[in-house]
Amino acid sequence: MFCTNCGEKVVEPETTCPKCGTQIGKRKQEGGVSKGLLWAGYLCPIFLPFAGFLIGLVIGIILLTKGRTGHGIAQILISVTILIFILYQFYSRPMFY
Question: How far apart, in Å, do the first and last CA atoms of the chain sit?
Fold first, then answer.
């Protein structure tokens, strides 16, 4: 393996270049959150309205605790917005005609 910054050969277990100090190797995903969890948080509230609201809310809270603030807030807002829409649709129609 070679350093992407200076081209120096780096031995496999090393994580930094001995010549320039650049980080070598795979980087861990930020916050340890998979892309599948992100997608589930965005899609569940849309396709599974009541259960999806809870799933999206929980995933949003998990993302907030893992440091993914933007995604966490977005998923909570989407979940709450869809719940408000569902409740409005449910209560705005007369139950009996």
Answer: 74
